[in-house]
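Please annotate this fold before class:
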Amino acid sequence: VLPDLLPMAGVKVDRVDVPETVAAGWRSHHRADAAFHAHPVFIDGVNALRTDLRRTALGTGPRRAAAHVGWELLLDDALVEDEATVDAFRAALRHGGGVSQARGWTILLDRLGAIRPGPPADVSVIAQRVQRAVGRRPRLAFGDEHVEDVAAVLAGHRPRILAAAPALLAELAR
């Protein structure tokens, strides 16, 4: 998950500077992302979210980004319910300490290392995460006035994503 976490911490590292085990995980993440982003369940889900987001005041770029990131974050939220997955995630984080000494990275690792299995997050929290994630790119950013609309659309799609998660993840793991 390193490629997804580094931007969250505002940290850039060169792949050649990380330990080989971390670099191998980085490569594995990119292979998994490629398979995931090409999967019909993801493509159809993102398209459905984007269609529903057209009913909001979001522009085209922010709408596309919010649909993509929102779908992924709702899927991530499904994973937090599974104790084995959370344990594996925390174990992977322990390998990340040597990646960077940047304060933001250390804070993020500590925060994520405290994650425990539990129920899905409130969709308003997920919508705020979407806003932060897409806000790193000015053309895709959207203001606070849109977060409630994004949350409402995500709430409508959450049941389908949670229901699709087990089969999708099992298929991608093969």
User: Anything to note?
Assistant: The chain is about 70% helix and 0% strand.
